[in-house]
Amino acid sequence: MSTRAAGSVLLRQLGPRVFGPVSSSPATMSPVSSSPPRPPLALAGGGERGGTAVWVRLLSTSAAEAKEEAAASKGNAGSTAAAKAEAAEAAKEGDGKRDKVVSSYWGIAPSKLMSKDGVEWRWSCFRPWETYKPDTSIDLTRHHEPKVLFDKIAAYWTVKLLRVPTDIFFQRRYGCRAMMLETVAAVPGMVGGMLLHLRSLRRFEHSGGWIRALLEEAENERMHLMTFMEVAKPKWYERALVLAVQGVFFNAYFLGYLISPKFAHRVVGYLEEEAIHSYTEYLKDLEAGKIENVPAPAIAIDYWQLPADATLKDVVIVVRSDEAHHRDVNHFASDIHFQGMQLKETPAPLEYH
């Protein structure tokens, strides 16, 4: 069959469907659309004129659809503008303050806690059940006497030498001194807890509670820092010094703990003894009136369950008792290693503040 004959057959089959008349009877009209059907376009003379008629019909349909889409978009724009106007009006209400929107995609809702006074809890860095009353009756004069050469040279005199530049830089500015001290004191507990955590994972063994005990120590020291940040506002060069000291001390202590945990814990024990001495001097200046005994920061009152009229002197007393407890924990941990045992073999003194 030739191409011309095949085209004729195809035209006879499809012609009535494409170019046939469209019924305008009510039965064939769409119940949704109320517009009358378009008039049929017949082949006027066939050939190119017929093809032109088909294109005219298609173009008219496209133009109508475009007009409908434009009208719809215009309506949407109007509704969007109305929604924006309503949002602007809502924003004006409440003195122009807008609440922060937290995504609820994960289904996590921040918990609202109440203090014992029936007031909403204002701290997110610690919870009401994490507060405590420190034991201030602890012996502050207790000292681990270095008996072996290792303790004397590697630990005791190392700490004594580290104190010299601190005394020169801060002298008797004990607020700034305490701030610097706490940025260093919060490092050992985190390093020790992290290394014990990794050891527990590698060896599939328990830690005897020492991971938690050391992390509690680090968190407690960090709360000391958050408190003294409210008392002594650090200057830019003091912040720069913190960056340098923390960078050096973290890496040095990390390597020291990897090499000898008993040495690392003994160093921290002596560091805490020096901290007790520094806070005792701080307390003397407060009592002598050389430093103003300002009201205690709100964070300290809630964290240590202090009375509402507590002062800076009360804060120094409870912080010093915390340092005494950390002294005992680290000397105890070092003694465990000196006896040839591992920390996991002896239960950790949890919540020993």
UniProtKB/TrEMBL annotation:
<dbReference type="InterPro" id="IPR002680">
    <property type="entry name" value="AOX"/>
</dbReference>
<keyword id="KW-0560">Oxidoreductase</keyword>
<comment type="function">
    <text>Catalyzes the cyanide-resistant oxidation of ubiquinol and the reduction of molecular oxygen to water, but does not translocate protons and consequently is not linked to oxidative phosphorylation. May increase respiration when the cytochrome respiratory pathway is restricted, or in response to low temperatures.</text>
</comment>
<keyword id="KW-0472">Membrane</keyword>
<keyword id="KW-0479">Metal-binding</keyword>
<dbReference type="GO" id="GO:0098803">
    <property type="term" value="C:respiratory chain complex"/>
</dbReference>
<keyword id="KW-0679">Respiratory chain</keyword>
<comment type="similarity">
    <text>Belongs to the alternative oxidase family.</text>
</comment>
<dbReference type="GO" id="GO:0046872">
    <property type="term" value="F:metal ion binding"/>
</dbReference>
<dbReference type="Pfam" id="PF01786">
    <property type="entry name" value="AOX"/>
</dbReference>
<dbReference type="GO" id="GO:0005743">
    <property type="term" value="C:mitochondrial inner membrane"/>
</dbReference>
<keyword id="KW-0408">Iron</keyword>
<protein>
    <recommendedName>
        <fullName>Ubiquinol oxidase</fullName>
        <ecNumber>1.10.3.11</ecNumber>
    </recommendedName>
</protein>
<dbReference type="GO" id="GO:0102721">
    <property type="term" value="F:ubiquinol:oxygen oxidoreductase activity"/>
</dbReference>
<keyword id="KW-0813">Transport</keyword>
<dbReference type="GO" id="GO:0009916">
    <property type="term" value="F:alternative oxidase activity"/>
</dbReference>
<dbReference type="InterPro" id="IPR038659">
    <property type="entry name" value="AOX_sf"/>
</dbReference>
<dbReference type="GO" id="GO:0106292">
    <property type="term" value="F:superoxide-generating NADPH oxidase activity"/>
</dbReference>
<feature type="region of interest" description="Disordered">
    <location>
        <begin position="21"/>
        <end position="47"/>
    </location>
</feature>
<keyword id="KW-0812">Transmembrane</keyword>
<keyword id="KW-0999">Mitochondrion inner membrane</keyword>
<keyword id="KW-0809">Transit peptide</keyword>
<dbReference type="GO" id="GO:0010230">
    <property type="term" value="P:alternative respiration"/>
</dbReference>
<feature type="compositionally biased region" description="Low complexity">
    <location>
        <begin position="21"/>
        <end position="33"/>
    </location>
</feature>
<keyword id="KW-0496">Mitochondrion</keyword>
<keyword id="KW-0249">Electron transport</keyword>
<keyword id="KW-1133">Transmembrane helix</keyword>
